[in-house]
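User: I'm preparing a small set of examples for a lab meeting where we compare how different chains pack in three dimensions. I only have the primary sequence for this one, and I'd like the structure in token form so I can line it up with the others. Please keep the answer compact; I'll paste it straight into my notes.
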Amino acid sequence: MPHTYLSTGPFLPSQSPLSSIFSKWFPKTIKMQTGKLLSWPAPPLQWIGHSDPVTCLSCSPNGYHIVTGSYDKTIRIWDIETGTTIGNSLKGHTDSVQSVAHSPDGRHIVSGSDDRTVRIWDAETGAPVGRPLEGHTEEVLSIAWSPNGQQIISGSFDETIRIWDAGTGEAIGAAFCFCDICCLLSHWAPYHLWIR
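Assistant: Understood. Below is the structure token output for the 196-residue chain.
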């Protein structure tokens, strides 16, 4: 049996099926004297923090946090292991939050709202970064970062897609206009914006 499996044995909860198998097959391995769990901890069944339905979520690039947006006009950052909120809710939107996304480096969060704005937040402190990005004339329904983290792409019920400079918050060029867009999935490629 590979070393990886043997070295995990002492840390398995006592009531784990693998623990009983390992103890029968390998009775002379290292044992934990104290601190061993009886069984695996239950994952949180309900994460409580928003006062209205959650409309969107994004997992951080490192996998440690989840960000959620809600009809309650707030954004929350959650610890993915415990299900507890980290810090206070992020407040600034004046209407429902419809979309959230992490920057590729995980340092920032971007949000789109029914208040027709895009906002950038510091993922560590929750503080707003710069001013709201304004230009859409209807609700902002989807948001994405370019892979290099230099642009933010937003899609709106106003049937346009806008590209923003993530550093300055300025719009890059004119809005792309599409008919009958209410929600989009965008994938940034080096030279093309693909819409599915």
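A couple of notes for your slides: Residues 1-41 form one domain. DSSP finds two helices and 14 strands in the chain.

User: Perfect, thanks.
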